[in-house]
Amino acid sequence: MARAVSRLAQSEGVTPTPLANAWLLKLRESVPYHRGRNRGLSVAVAISGRKIVTYRKNRVVNDSGNIITMHGDTDYDATVEASRSEPYIALKLQLPPDLLAETLIRFVETGTQAGKTETDATFFCEPLSEALADPLLRLVESFGDPADCHVLAPLCLQEICYRILRSNAFSVLKSAIAEEDTRLVRAMRFIEAHAHRNDLSIDQIASQIAMSPSRFAHRFSALLGMSPMQYRKQIRLEKARQYLLSAQISVALAAEAAGYASTSHFNRDFNSAFGLPPRRYAETVRKLGTVRS
């Protein structure tokens, strides 16, 4: 894992991968303070260096051999300990919300829900197990081949999501699943089909699955770690990302295709989601030679 990730993380800062929800980070200097924000279910695996993360009163150290998982729409504080001889290098993932929803629902269907525990699934750090390290390594290795990235990477993400949700840290999340939550997948498909509409509302989405708007918004955010409108934004940005890579259109046209009226607003949202401005992101991924359309 260390060799595979270090080989890809050659430049300082964020290095995108052919997958929208996976990237690498390399820092050769310490960062005394950083304010971050998490949405959805994210994963960070440290290869070298140290990152100290504080959430509320919880403080964990993510260094070589550890994995941090975070769930929900939450702010956190972090410091990074790094040097040129031992840079901070990490693999980061944001698991797709639809994959998270479908995996949680399958736990219900197979009767593998866990009982409630005192463990908090919002913020968790533990040693990286062999069972989870294996699909993570296969995911990183798939970036080197377009066919592997297109066919095998989604399968790796499925296994990664499954392994994470099977851990004790997510017993609370699994035990919170209700039968009505199977409708959330239908809601997500409706959002995906209508993400381009500027008039799309919580009321319209909730009516499609016969839930009250307040109940729908609460269940969506509680289980998927982001609001329905945040998910719509994610869908729009992914559409723009694909246009930039496959059609090689201008940033302005990509913003318009994604439903943005303002290119500057699009640039800010894209940079926040993918770690780089749109044009630089597209140029960097094309250099990898493994663009996934």
From TrEMBL:
Pfam families, A to Z: AraC_N, HTH_18
Keyword Transport: no
Segments crossing the lipid bilayer: none
Keyword Transcription recorded: yes
Entry keywords, A to Z: Transcription, Transcription regulation
PROSITE patterns membership: HTH_ARAC_FAMILY_2
Identification of the protein by name: AraC family transcriptional regulator
Domain of life: Bacteria
Domain HTH araC/xylS-type: 185-284
